[in-house]
Specification:
The complex is a heterodimer of chains A (330) and B (257). In chain A, 73% of the residues lie in helices and 2% in strands. Chain A has 330 residues and is mostly helical. Classes of the chains: A mainly alpha (330), B alpha/beta (257).
Chain lengths: 330, 257
């Protein structure tokens, strides 16, 4: 016991592994319940979507939660990952590649996109930066619709299935397991990253760029790194999205998707991993619930009402309720 | 250590600094505490801003340890060891005291994110943790405060937390903007002890602005008096504070003080 503790400095690795374990275990629980007929087959699709969104929101948590930079272009980064996967993947044609190669290419493309879109963050912040990210998202949308030679235009691109570790991403149950594994790995990366000096410098620029500069932090650096990291997470999420749906179309990465991602991380809680998962659940459950109550058109209204209620009762997101309860009992 | 040469700064028509010349840190070998006093609007904070790079200067030169830093940015000067605190305390809100202190060591710990992620910097991390804990104890925190969010701390301790961040950055020059403002009497005593030891034991040139003349008189080896952007006096506290023009600038025209 004490020997094990010595291997785990200050719980840094422990919390990363616990996080990963919980996610994979949760995926298994869904699959078992489904096998036993307790929940419908559809549940594994929703759970896989949840893990996919969680991966994207981890990036947004780093960007907004750590450095305080608002982005309305996160869905566009997901789209960049999805379209990159579609363009290099099998069937659409160009290069039939194994998943690992897809992953590497998507990470590189995502990082480059984050770097380019993040460059203005060195000079500007706040609402000006929001407008820049929104502009990027709209240009991306416009490009998808207009360069149909590459993007397939409004028809999008069809894809062939692919596998991770033998798990087929287009088969619901296998997709759940594969997506949970990738999200767990992403969670490990974020949890370990959170304890680094770079991460501390990110929170420092969030509160005061002047104070950060006064101890030798070049404020542009952590802000730019956050953009790159957030874009990579979004792009990998997009890769999973593309292979899960086997089609990518421009409408999936449009204005409202950008808005809902931001709303989700705010509702869930932008500072913690729990907030990321609550936000991901929000992105999956709310549209489904609104569809069942009336029709899909109610989604923005329901989401808006939830946002307002959460902001009144838990301004730091739903995840803070749990921590508040924990603190009051201690 | 610090050479301020004919520095002028205007905001519109207002001459915030009107040709200030000062040499600090060369007269006393081992590091000392210097005081910068003067009435409100005299240009004290503007001078700190000019030294740290927060405002550009219209003319003149600032050099630190022989290096001309007149055009250098804030973080470049900080990496040379010029570190400051703020009149309104600036901390990383919602983060722990431990993190708020540890970020002070940034300039010695940057660029090793991968090693830190893989747990390769473990002995370093333990060492840093110990230093942070020791610093917190020196500044009057309880050990249990390390895990607390700085946002929950009372004002005096927040100011102390900011000071801890400055000290952990191992400055050559520490510029403190009203470090004693809002502190209880016992905290002021503690602050004076910490600053004295910072100067004499670690050889840091400490420059502070302060309104409490008694505090300055006891702590500072030399003081400079600013009035309307001009340096009207410089020297040992007893001598400077006895000068009639300093009296006039500080306490008004009244003779019977």
């Amino acid at each position: 016991m004490s020997g094990l503790r010595a291997l785990l400095p200050r719980g840094q690795f422990a919390s990363a592994l616990v996080h990963a374990g919980v996610i994979v275990l949760a995926a298994f629980v869904v699959l078992v319940l489904q096998g036993a007929g307790v929940i419908s087959v559809f549940a594994s699709t929703l759970a896989a979507d949840c893990a996919m969104y969680a991966l994207a929101l981890m990036g947004l948590s780093v960007l907004y939660g750590w450095t305080g930079q608002l982005s309305l272009g996160h869905a566009a980064f997901i789209g960049i990952g999805a379209y990159t996967a579609a363009l290099i993947g099998p069937h659409t044609g160009s290069l039939p590649t194994p998943f690992l190669v897809d992953l590497i290419v998507v990470v590189v493309v995502g990082a480059l996109a984050g770097l380019i879109v993040g460059l203005p963050s060195i000079r500007i912040s706040g609402i000006q930066l929001v407008v820049v990210t929104l502009g990027f998202a709209e240009v991306f949308q416009w490009a998808l619709n207009n360069f149909d030679g590459i993007s397939g235009g409004t028809q999008g691109l069809l894809m062939d299935h692919t596998t991770i570790l033998g798990l087929d991403l287009s088969v619901s149950q296998q997709r759940l397991l594969a997506t949970a594994l990738v999200a767990a790995a992403g969670g490990v990366v974020v949890t370990l990253f959170a304890r680094t000096t770079v991460a501390r410098s990110m929170t420092a620029v969030r509160e005061s760029e002047q104070a950060a500069a006064s101890i030798g932090i070049n404020p542009g650096t952590p802000k730019l790194i956050a953009f790159v990291v957030s874009a990579v997470f979004a792009a990998v999420s997009g890769l999973l999205f593309a292979y899960g749906n086997l089609i990518v179309i421009p409408g999936t990465f449009a204005l409202f998707d950008n808005v809902f991602l931001l709303v989700a991380i705010i509702v869930g809680g932008r500072h913690t991993m729990l907030g990321v998962w609550l936000g991901a659940a929000f992105l999956v459950v709310v549209p489904e619930a609104s569809r069942e109550m009336a029709n899909g058109a109610l989604y923005p209204v329901v989401a808006g009402v939830i946002l307002i209620v959460v902001m009144i009762f838990a301004p730091r997101g739903l995840a803070s309720l749990w921590r508040r309860g924990e603190r009051s009992t201690s | 250590m610090i050479d301020i040469d004919q520095v002028r700064i205007s905001f519109g028509g207002l001459h915030a600094l009107d040709g200030v010349t000062l040499q600090l840190g060369d007269d006393i070998e081992e590091g000392a505490v210097y005081g910068l006093i003067g009435p409100n609007g005299a240009g004290k904070t503007t001078l700190l801003n000019a030294l740290t790079g927060f405002v550009g200067i219209d003319s003149g030169r600032v050099s630190i340890a022989g290096v001309d830093v007149t055009g250098a940015s804030v973080h470049e000067r900080a990496r040379l060891g010029v570190v400051r605190s703020f009149q309104t305390v600036r901390l990383i809100e919602d983060e722990s005291l431990e993190d708020n202190l540890a970020i002070g060591m940034y300039r010695f710990r940057r660029g090793r994110a991968v090693a830190e992620m893989l747990g390769l910097a473990r002995s370093q991390r333990r060492h840093d943790r110990k230093r942070v804990a020791d610093m917190a104890a020196t500044l009057g925190f309880d050990a249990s405060d390390l895990r607390r969010s700085v946002t929950e701390l009372p004002f005096g301790l927040r100011r102390m937390a900011e000071l801890g961040r400055v000290i952990l950055s191992e400055p050559r020059v520490a510029l403190l903007d009203e470090p004693a403002a809002g502190l209880e009497q016992d905290q002021r005593v503690q602050l004076a002890d910490v600053l004295r030891s910072l100067a004499t034991d670690q050889g840091v040139t400490v420059i502070l602005t302060e309104h409490d003349i008694e505090f300055v008189r006891r702590l500072c080896r030399r003081i400079a008096v600013l009035d309307s952007g001009v340096n009207i006096a410089w020297g040992e506290p007893a001598t400077v504070l006895a000068q009639p023009d300093v009296h006039r600038a500080y306490f008004g025209e009244s003779e019977d003080v």
